[in-house]
From TrEMBL:
InterPro entries: ECF_Sigma-70_Domain, NTF2-like_dom_sf, RNA_pol_sigma-70_dom, RNA_pol_sigma70_r2, RNA_pol_sigma70_r4_t2, RNA_pol_sigma_r2, RNA_pol_sigma_r3/r4-like, WH-like_DNA-bd_sf. Pfam families: Sigma70_r2, Sigma70_r4_2. Residues 98-148 form the RNA polymerase sigma factor 70 region 4 type domain. This is Sigma-70 family RNA polymerase sigma factor. Gene3D superfamilies: 1.10.1740.10, Winged helix-like DNA-binding domain superfamily/Winged helix DNA-binding domain. CDD domains: Sigma70_r4. It comes from the Bacteria. GO terms for molecular function: DNA binding; sigma factor activity.
Length: 276
């Protein structure tokens, strides 16, 4: 069964947005599998996928109930996708922007969308995995697409790194004008501290508000940090370290050469995997 673990963790992570929880779900699925007579199961891989997807849906429902009590915006746990890691299938990991958008969906819509758009399942296969009708699968996908704004890209594009270099140059020189030229007019910044690290508790919207925040935060907190460039969920990111401890992951969502969203991950619990 171990050969299926990276695939199963990827399914669970895409649904949950938490790598730690995804690993727990897969372990639970393995334990359930060992409790049954596996000799009667013809396709162990599909059986495990079905188990993991349904366990993940239930876990996501519980997670979504808790998000209302979360201190500030809840963001998915970021995953490094530029380095080889046998624990997860990087190619199938969804982009960070899409992971954030999918928080609009309920757990079952999210699962249908992921199975169809990310893993190329037919509706007949989705119906079998989720124990629903083909028609219900089609309806759930249609509703998911409507909420995500039809045409939301799932395919990964090469991470645009030019904007990161321009961003670093502008912010390190304190050049407000140059920084503003990098942003879409309706840029949004979200920050997740989880109540365990200082972070903006409300979304920041618009060039002026985002620029002012970034300039202030850099001058106060990051001037003397070690900054590394990386790729997180197929999108460019900056990683900020103090004494070799990762304290912030800043993810850039870039559209048409300009930044349209910033995601700041400050919650130390969600930075553990990136720290490794």
């Amino acid at each position: 069964m171990e050969e299926f673990r990276p695939l199963l963790i990827t399914y669970a992570y895409n649904i949950l947005g938490s790598l730690e929880e995804a690993k727990d779900i897969v372990q639970d699925a393995f334990l359930k599998f060992m409790d049954i007579d596996s000799s009667k199961i013809d396709d162990k891989r599909n059986y495990l996928i079905r188990t993991v997807v349904n366990l993940s849906i239930n876990a996501k429902k519980r997670q979504q109930k808790l998000v209302g009590e979360y201190p500030g915006p809840w963001l998915p746990e970021p995953v490094a996708t530029e380095k080889a890691d046998g624990g997860i299938m990087q190619k199938e990991v969804l982009s960070y922007s899409l992971m954030v958008l999918m928080e609009k969906l309920n757990a079952r819509q999210r699962a249908v969308f992921i199975l169809k758009e990310a893993f190329d399942y037919e509706h007949e296969e989705i119906a079998e995995v989720l124990d629903i009708s083909v028609e219900n699968s089609r309806k759930l996908l249609s509703r998911a697409r409507e909420q995500l704004q039809k045409g939301t890209p799932v395919a990964h594009k090469p991470a645009e790194t030019a904007a990161i270099d321009k961003y670093l140059n502008a912010i390190q020189q304190g050049n407000t004008h140059e920084l503003e030229q990098l942003f879409h007019d309706e840029i949004v910044l979200l920050s997740d501290g989880g109540g365990k690290a200082i972070a903006a508790t409300r979304p920041l919207v618009g060039i002026k508000a985002v620029t002012s925040f970034l300039m202030g935060v850099y001058a106060k907190n990051y001037q003397f940090a070690r900054i590394e460039k990386g790729t997180v969920n197929h999108e460019p990111a900056l990683l900020y370290y103090f004494d070799n401890v990762l304290v912030t992951c800043q993810i850039f969502s870039i559209r048409d050469g300009q930044v349209d969203n910033f995601y700041f991950m400050r919650n130390p619990d969600k930075l553990k995997e990136l720290q490794k």
